Input
Amino acid sequence: MIAIYENLQEARRTVLQRRSMLTVADVPPVVLQGIEKIFQESLTPEVAVSRILADVRDRGDAALRDWTLRIDNLTLDALEIPPERWAAAYETLDPELRAALEFSAERIRDFHSRQPIPSWTTEEMGGTLGQRLAPIQRVGIYVPGGTAPLPSSLLMTAIPARVAGVDEIIVCTPPGKPDGEVSPTILAAAQIAGVDKVYRVGGAVAIAALAFGTDSIARVDKIVGAGGLFTTLAKRQVYGIVGLDGLAGPTETVVVADDSANPAWVAADLLAQAEHDVLATAILLTPSRELAQAVQREVETQMQQLSRRDVLARSLPGQGGIVVTPDMETAIRLADEFAPEHLCLSVREPMAWAAKIRNAGGLFLGETSCEVLGDYVAGPSHIMPTGGTARFASPVNVLDFVKVTSIVALDNDTATRLAGVAERIARAESLTAHAEAAAQRARGA
Output
């Protein structure tokens, strides 16, 4: 049952309280037990990941195979899945599903092709100054493939990268159990997105391979894509060696609704988010007590018909909740403070209320613009900032796959004029070599 909170202080202390899933205190005991079984000693997830990273860095492909055997109980001969397997998966996929993936890919491509990524120069500052945007050369994409393989995540990352002009896109996804095969839908998505390589290796092992490179897997310049705890910890530990799109925590949705909202639709949206995993967050903020109660009843009724009831039975009481607020202004303020990955406004005049929101990965305005459409076919990438990072981070987009180079080509008069200013600042910083280099230009430019 999803709880209703009518006391705002209690709501802030519980359902609206941010918790980090990257600390040992928050790690479920079953995870710690699994680490002990694999390593034959008690380790924190951080230490376990650091050992995997170091081993892959030192031993390359041999370490990839050893850790896949130890963690997944799978023996891998070939790490790479050849392109003819992607093509076969595409051709044999259910035609309606294939058409759906193609349709999704086209909308994602269309949306991101409209994003401006201009280089520019100006002659108005003395000579030529500007910025040149160039695509990143090689990108690694991590695609989850556990209990729910996500071909949509491959499309949502690889297509913006391709639009940006990335030279080489490498995909890593976990081998399936019990046979080690990768989901045909992921392979079909790889075919549709036009990636360059696909490898069946997952978790921290995959992140290590992408960050350091092995004989089989080329080192990349940036890693994008969400994953579980060990994937996220591994990404954090390799930051600086490679670029990252961000550190993904459990997925989350906040719905703000008034008394005009359809309680069945609101409940369906909450359930759609909560079924991702037991740590997913689904929250409703509403000034209507009647709507809160109606949504609570709908959640209980609808979840009985869903296949992932066991997940819902843990995520909804664990991180979910319905908060009754004094008014809409309070609901909007609380949503903005929470800075959710997804913020759905099921209200009258959603555009007007959206103007008051600064912090959200994605804004879904009006009841027809449900988040599930954003997950698959609306157009923007569904890889969005979680854990409150929407305060400073953005969804994956074309700009994630380009980098800026500053252009400085000063004319002689401007260089002479600037050199004296630079010299004074350099001497104030006690950097005399800097000062002398500027002074020489001032004298001889």
User: Anything to note?
Assistant: The longest strand covers residues 128-135. The chain has three domains: 4-18+250-378, 22-248+390-407, 410-444. Residues 95-113 form the longest helix (19 residues). The mean pLDDT is 94.
